[in-house]
Amino acid sequence: MPSRRRTLLKVIILGDSGVGKTSLMNQYVNKKFSNQYKATIGADFLTKEVQFEDRLFTLQIWDTAGQERFQSLGVAFYRGADCCVLVYDVNSMKSFDNLNNWREEFLIQANPSDAENFPFVVLGNKIDVDGGNSRVVSEKKARAWCASKGNIPYFETSAKEGVNVEEAFQVIAKNALKSGEEEEIYLPDTIDVGSSSQPRSGGCEC
């Protein structure tokens, strides 16, 4: 039987303030929704264990503040991410238009080794509001944007009603896994990433 190694996969959720990032995370991890809106200060994260092919993975899902005054915190949170989730509110054109800024900001701050193929997933949230009558961003428009950015997977979600949340995070986890596996092959499990065959001096190479 294959060994059940635990692997940590880091997922970052980005998007404008109030689009439902925290609610999506809570719905996925805790199966809960709250109508009480509380802005995230800085960043927060939840973890959830997922299993693929007899391997256990811990998804570490980081929810970052949408307010611009917290964006300077970005670098530390973005580094080492295995997947980035871009969230907008289907009832807010501004939140959709800002997806491009969030995506570019992430690529600059996280500086992934293969920016062209880094996995993103886009979620159009709040499809439940007003029975869908308030929406201003069509699914066609959102899918066209995702296609233009290298066929980013797209889901329409309702954090409140749990619509497509589980399905979206399954794809997020799979994409994070693909991204994270490349690192696993090359990096040993220790902090020392130098060649193990080379004797190392005791000094810090910070």
Going by CATH, the architecture would be 3-Layer(aba) Sandwich
Strand content: 15-25%
CATH homologous group name: P-loop containing nucleotide triphosphate hydrolases
In which order are the strands of the major sheet placed? 2-3-1-4-5-6
Could you list the spans in which at least 5 consecutive residues all have pLDDT below 50? 183-206
**CATH topology grouping:** Rossmann fold
Quickly count the domains.
1
Cα-atom radius of gyration: 18 Å
Termini Cα gap = 40 Å
**Largest beta-sheet characterization:** 6 strands, mixed
Mean pLDDT: 82
Assembly type of the chains comes to single chain
Structural class, by secondary structure, is alpha/beta
Beta strand count: 6
- What's the SSE pattern? EHEEHEHHEHEH
Helix percentage: 25-40%
The dominant shape is globular
Q: Which CATH class? A: Alpha Beta
Description of the structure:
The chain is α/β, with parallel strands linked by helices. It is built from 6 helices and 6 strands, in the order E-H-E-E-H-E-H-H-E-H-E-H. It has a 6-stranded mixed beta sheet with strand order 2-3-1-4-5-6, with helices on both faces. It is globular and about 45 Å long. It starts with 5 loop residues before the first strand and ends in a 20-residue tail after the last helix. Residues 183-206 have low confidence and may be disordered. InterPro entries: P-loop_NTPase, Small_GTP-bd, Small_GTPase. It is found in: Cell membrane.
